[in-house]
Write a structure and sequence with these properties.
Distance between the termini: 49 Å
Number of helices: 6
Strand order of the largest sheet: 11-10-9-20-19-18-16-15-14-13
Number of strands: 20
Helix content: 10-25%
Length: about 425
Amino acid sequence: MKKHIKHSVGLMLVLFLWVSVIPVRGQEEDSANYITISGLVKDKQSRKGLEYVNISIPGSNIGTVTNADGVFTIKVDEGTPVPVLEISHIGYQNNRVQLDKEHLDDLKIWLTPHANMLNEIVVYANEPRRIVEKAISKISVNYSNKSNMLTGFYRETVQKGRRYINISEAVINTYKTSYDNLDVTKDRVQVLKGRRLLSQKRNDTLAVKLAGGPTLSVYVDIVKNQDALLDVETLNFYQFQMEEPVQIDNRLQYVISFYPRVVLPYALYYGKLYIDREKLSFTRAEFSLSMDNKVKAVDAILAKKPYGLRFKPQELSYLVTYKDQGGKTYLNYIRNIIRFKCDWKRKLFSTGYTVLSEMVVTDRKDNSVLPIPAKLSFSQTQPFYDKVYEYWNEDFWGAYNIIEPTESLENAVHKLKKQSH
């Protein structure tokens, strides 16, 4: 496994002290004409909102996901006909919602859980690793053999306890070479438009930054960047076990859990891989860093910190999902959560922090696109916060699709905006 990503799949925390915050003028806004479709997705049985549900427009590459409250908006060009929305989520039957121009707001969409499909699947019960290896061997068949430009929305938040102290967002482009080429060094990210809000309180002077945040779309794509989790050497470090299957996009999935079987100088992961039974394509991965050895975990997560600050990691976890379009499978959504505690020497109490970053692919163009120039690309070593402006208004995103903020995040934005005035 390559040294530069063996620890935290390419993302590291940077802790330092803020001295001052200088507001920067925002960018001009988009003027494209578009229509907005909005709604709430709920479980038909529990009546609860469903988070991270895929919302897409059939026949196009446009899509988004619901927020943690189950709320979504999706924007399309005014001249684009949108008769149907397709809704899909792990463990649920897909739903297609018919639309008309008079009823595009506040849609209520219900998803029905799939029944247990255990009796309908035949597996190599004692050979889950064999299934993983077969899925790896079919990556060049199942994933795009063309270069792609993915447009996405990226959000990064930092909470001190339950209180937000930093909210940063951007629309990004990610250039991906063909999945025939597993080298990610030519895959690049460009920040198109972004904004940020920062707590002005003096006791929030400990700054938390995630180095290379938007490069989630490059380094945490475990199918393309196999050094992160799926290379042959890495498989030897893990034990695999078959779990109960699930449905994704109305297709049956193998679910294979994995956990460390050896002790190495650096921390390993545990989690689950979801593999389409018929295509043998990876459709979802959930994995977390083992915290059995705190010294190894610190080395995996933390890039730098102030002298005298003690760092205590609690969690580092990832969710990566893929979506089938036109017979090929593409990157769809990534979420990264880092939880930790900090305290200073000679102090009795520690403070808990949560850094959450997520990226959803909202559009895609293939084959005819040019690479992002190196001078415009975002570096894996750059903190995202330093690259966006302090600028916040309701129409900031224009025609770009985003992940709608949750109610709690909207409240946090309101409080941080009041501090800055």
